[in-house]
Specification:
Blueprint (H helix, E strand, L loop, with lengths): L2 H9 L4 H8 L5 E5 L2 E5 L11 E4 L2 E3 L7 E2 L1 E5 L2 E6 L1 H5 L7 E4 L4 E4 L1 E6 L1 H7 L3 E2 L6 H13 L7 E6 L11 E2 L2 E2 L2 H6 L5 E5 L4 E4 L1 H6 L12 E5 L5 E7 L2 H12 L4 H21 L2 E9 L1 H12 L6 E6 L4 H11 L1 E3 H4 L1 E9 L29 H13 L3 E6 L2 H18 L9 E4 L10 H5 L2 E3 L2 H23 L3 H7 L16 H10 L16 H8 L1 H6 L17 E4 L16 E6 L2 E5 L6
Length: 599
């Protein structure tokens, strides 16, 4: 790690000029400490030592004191100095690329705290249903796709959400239409359309038949096949009920050659990275990939082909498979800090929108249900014990208040049983959307990280009251401020492709909790602008054990920086969503520039 970073870590921040004065003479500098002696040499900060310099800007370092500077010097893939423009210009020569920020704000590269990397790439290759205003538009999109498809070819898409439609179609069951219009539009092509949350899907008649789903098919554990009044499947499949049609789709894809499948996966990696970098995201915490996908990511990292840095959670393996494979898949900073694998992902419940979140009390708008248990508590606990024994972090998807309580209970039991006296586990609960008030303080007390995606709050708010009722919504929904003040480490993200990979949407939700109609959803739970930026940078780094190498603009850290068109820390709140990323810097290289680069 670079000299100046060590000096900062050992003695606290010093002005750049102090380092320059100490090093310009080329004299070996000796620092002696009670704990040992550190020899610091080769600290040449003379003219020309920087490869890239950012000048004349507002640098939000997001360091421990949230300090500001004017300029940054970068050499290789690391930040070497932060200071005034005059100080940084001393490190500039003919070989240095200089970016004049012209007063713009530069921040650490956004870290996507919870998303689905290959899912983002896959979404770019399928129908994007997130823009559909109603069921009729979805039918039209499918019909158009059928025109270009061969008979038998699958039509796939993702992003629909019945609560966001501008009109309710006729003949709905539990607020969702039946498959008949979809089947009429695509009689010879199976259609499989995943809900925006990923916790439900819709299939046409042919897809249901290929998945061997009929009126006689029983609900699988942790899932539900929705039926109409005659007992016929409507096409809506909740949670694990999706797997039957998913297996039929997988069987169809087996017709593709290994070379075709590999090429498709590599294209998904490229598309996902491209989309992330355009939004200033330089690191991405992938919420669950199997060993086969990790093998491909490792190959790409070894070849220097990963477009952004990835922190991947292992998912989809049994406790026995985890026991056998975790040690072989543990990677920290592999491929020049581009790939880390040191955590597992599990899910205990589903999503609120699809009535899959596991609640302590029944749904307000579906009194017959308390949600779904996607994976048994005993199974998750076994996985957690294996992870602990192999030094892996555990990250469990939990949305409902019962799901959060059960997950905290699991963690508590595993800590007591296998913790070996260690306390810095940084185990996480992904989403942590609805928490019973009695469980809030357990997060900081246990060192458990609530891994939020703030945009879910403002996206889901219109139906939170419907699902939970007023009392539960007010006392436990999206409790960021309360948890922050209690001492929990709050992180942020988008859960892409559930939501768009747009940090500004989540940032805006964090500081405003304002809905599209202008109303606010419990505004007392907002974070400040600086806290919100921390949640998207240094806190996400901490949640991945990476705070020493990323998450802030400090000497010695990776030179991952986003340059913004507007100062999101000071502009009027209603202008935040108009902000763009002007440039993205990854490892000291400019990897994205907005066309024209003007405000």
């Amino acid at each position: 790690m670079h000299l100046i970073y060590f000096m900062n870590r050992l003695f606290g921040a010093m002005p750049l000029g102090s380092y320059t004065a100490a090093c310009k003479t080329g004299i070996l500098t000796l620092f002696a400490l009670i704990s040992g002696v550190f020899l610091i040499a080769g600290c040449d900060t003379t003219s020309g030592s920087a490869d890239l310099a950012l000048t004349n800007g507002k640098i939000a370092t997001v360091d421990s004191s949230f300090s500001y500077a004017e300029a940054v010097a970068i050499k290789g893939d690391r930040i070497v100095a932060v200071g005034t423009t005059e100080e940084i210009m001393e490190m500039v020569s003919a070989g240095t690329a200089v970016v004049d920020l012209e007063g713009r704000l530069a921040i650490p590269g956004f870290i996507e705290g919870h998303g689905h990397f290959m899912g983002l790439g896959s979404a770019k290759l399928n129908l994007d249903l997130s823009t559909a205003q109603n069921w009729g538009e979805i039918i039209s999109m499918v019909a158009e796709a059928v025109e270009d498809a061969e008979p038998g070819e699958w039509i796939t898409g993702r992003g629909w959400h019945q609560e966001k439609w501008d009109e309710v179609p006729d003949n709905t069951v539990e607020g969702v239409p039946t498959h008949h219009q979809l089947s009429d539009a695509s009689p010879d092509n199976p259609v499989y359309l995943r809900h925006a949350s990923g916790h439900a899907a819709f299939a046409n008649q042919l897809a249901l038949e290929l998945g061997r789903i009929s009126s006689e098919t029983a609900n699988p554990d942790g899932g539900e096949i929705v039926h109409d009044v005659r007992g016929e499947p409507t096409g809506l499949l909740r949670e694990t009920a999706q797997r039957a049609v998913g297996r039929a789709l997988a069987a169809y894809r087996e017709q593709m050659s290994p070379e075709e499948l590999r090429a498709e996966s590599i294209e998904m990696i490229r598309l996902a990275g491209e989309e992330a970098l355009q939004h200033g995201v330089t690191s991405f915490q992938d919420a669950g990939s199997g060993f086969a996908t990790i093998d491909l990511l490792r190959e790409q990292a070894a070849e220097g082909q990963l477009p952004i840095r990835l922190y991947v959670m292992v998912r989809g393996a049994s406790a026995e498979e985890l026991e056998e494979n975790l040690d072989n898949y543990r990677m920290i900073g592999f491929g020049n800090e581009f790939l880390t694998v040191r955590s597992i992902k599990q899910a205990i419940d589903g999503a609120l929108g699809s009535h899959g979140a596991w609640l302590l009390e029944p749904y307000e708008d579906m009194p017959s249900s308390v949600g779904l248990v996607v994976n048994p508590v005993e199974e998750i606990e076994r996985d957690a014990e294996v992870a602990m024994n192999h030094g892996f972090q555990v990250n469990v998807h939990a949305i409902g208040d019962r799901a959060n309580r059960e997950t905290l209970d699991i963690y508590e039991r595993v800590f007591e049983k296998t913790g070996n006296g260690e306390t810095d586990h940084r185990w996480r609960i992904e989403h942590a959307q609805h928490i019973h008030p009695d469980d809030l303080k357990r997060f900081p007390d246990m060192g458990v990280i609530p891994a939020f995606q703030a945009v879910h709050c403002t996206s889901d708010a219109p139906w939170v009251y419907k699902r939970l009722g007023a009392e539960r919504a007010e006392s436990g929904a999206y409790m960021w401020r309360t948890l922050w003040d209690l001492g929990a480490v709050i992180t942020n993200g988008t859960d892409v492709p559930v939501e768009k990979i747009d940090p500004f949407a989540s940032y805006y939700a964090t500081v405003s909790r304002r809905l599209s109609d202008g109303t606010q959803f419990f505004p007392e739970e907002v974070l400040t602008r600086e806290e919100a930026l921390q949640s998207y940078t240094i806190n996400n780094a901490y949640a991945a054990f990476e705070e020493d190498v990323k998450g802030s603009i400090e000497p010695g850290k990776l030179a991952d920086i986003a340059i913004l068109s507007r100062d999101i820390l000071t502009i009027p709140e209603d202008e935040i969503l108009d902000t763009d990323v002007v440039q993205t810097i990854l490892g000291g290289k400019i990897v994205y520039t907005r066309g024209g680069a003007e405000d």
